[in-house]
Specification:
By secondary structure, the chain is an all-alpha fold. It has one domain. The protein contains three helices and no strands. α1 packs across α2. The longest helix has 28 residues. The protein is elongated and about 55 Å long. The mean pLDDT is 94. Keywords: Membrane, Transmembrane, Transmembrane helix.
């Protein structure tokens, strides 16, 4: 039972590192706010992380329309 718990823990941590790292790369260093994978990962992020990511991208890409998930209901303004 302990070995199974260790294996599950390793998979969970590896998944968090892999997907979390990819999300952070999109938010902090992506060349475009319209990367499909980044938008999807940002959509699955918890609300505080999504908000932080949207604000970070807003400062990195001023004057551009926000990607899906970072837009107000009209789709033209950042959250």
């Amino acid at each position: 039972m302990k070995k199974l718990l260790n294996v599950i823990t390793v998979f969970v941590v590896a998944g968090l590192v892999m997907f979390g790292g990819r999300w952070y790369m999109y938010v902090a260093q992506g060349q475009s706010p319209y990367d499909e994978v980044g938008i999807a990962l940002n959509g699955y992020a918890p609300a505080p992380l999504r908000s932080w990511g949207c604000h970070k991208m807003q400062t990195r890409f001023p004057g551009q329309l926000p990607p899906y998930g970072c837009a107000t209901p009209d789709g033209r303004n950042w959250l």
